[in-house]
Fold this protein.
Amino acid sequence: MRAMVTGGAGFIGSHLVELLIAEGHDVSIVDDLSTGKRTNILPEAHFYFADIRSEEIKDVISTERPDVIFHQAAQSSVKVSTDDPRRDADINILGLIRLLDAASASGVRKVVFASSGATYGNPQYLPMDEDHPQLPESPYGITKLMSEHYLKYYALDRGVAFTALRYGNVYGPRQDPHGEAGVVAIFTQQLLDGKTPTVHWDGKQTRDYVSVKDVARANLAAAFRGDGRAFCIGTGKGTSVNTIFSLLCKATGRDVEPMHSPRRPGDLRHAHFDCTRARKELGWTATMPLQQGLTDTVQAFREQIAAERKVLTVG
Ligand code: NAD
């Protein structure tokens, strides 16, 4: 397959590119490197340094003529979306529309979209499945939900098939440890730096932590199945922040008590998914055990830190 990954220099996108290349697909990447990194780009992929909102995107897509576009590029921070809703909508909505116009003009068969559990808002029941009401509580959740509607419209009106994957809390190597979200990356970096992480609230709040490797496999499965459908992509289990903290302490060899700070406004108590539909219709389930996934993440962060130190020493 000819595959294009928008946001392929980012955390999830770069793992997806790696998987697609390993499976023998022809891959191109579109990324403006706003949060993605040049060092995440595999040399086997054709890289286009471009903003999905630019005119240029039409030429890039008509040159590459991908069969499937995996649309990972986004303004992906809830905090940025609440601080600047216009920026969030500009990238996430207008960027998507620009991409879909270009895709339909070039005969792209399908767009696999990175949606989010944030489209649900406060859970009304657990585990949440695809039929759970979507009542997002942040501009980011709103733009992800609107994106699903635009995808439906372009499928009906212009014949570009789609699948929307509503990810849980994705973790793994290459996640940015300096953002507001991504507790695994933040704790890992701090523990390896000899710092003491802060747990918000009482740490008993739970989330569905899914490995980036599993998320990449879900995307690949969705290239060939699940047209016109949305899927919850998680493990089906909720894990508390306290459990994540203690597993990461074990994996990093640190023996510390976390600091605590009050609950942040809008923080949910519990959230996890029922992923039966993904199993039945995509043939996908999360297979990475949490402890293994966290250990692999710590190992990758260690290697990253060592590589950065080497560059500094040589420089
Ligand atoms: P990320 O920030 O690492 O990746 C996003 C990539 O998109 C970056 O490489 C960035 O440079 C690129 N990008 C941003 N704006 C762009 C633009 N206008 N034009 C071209 N490229 C642009 O984030 P991530 O965690 O890898 O997220 C990937 C996708 O998954 C996003 O759509 C995000 O909303 C979604 N998602 C992530 C999670 C999670 O837990 N990480 C959960 C749910 C959904």
About this structure: The mean pLDDT is 96.
